[in-house]
Amino acid sequence: MRTVVLTKGVPDFREGQVSFDEEGHLERGKTPTVMNPNDKHALRAAFQTKVRNGGQVSLMSMGPPGYEEVLQEGMRDVYADDLYLLSDREMGAADTWATAMTVASGLQKLDEEPDLVFAGFKTADGETGHTGPQTCWCLDWPIITHVLSLDIDEDERTVRAKRLVDGDISEIETVEAPMPCFIVADPEFEPTYRRASHRLKHKDLRDETQARAADYEDHLTVWDHTDLNLDPDYIGLDGSPTIVAGVDPIPKAPSEREATVIDAGADEGMEQVLDELAPYAAGD
Question: Which InterPro entries match (predicted)?
Answer without folding.
Answer: ETF_a/b_N, ETF_b, Rossmann-like_a/b/a_fold
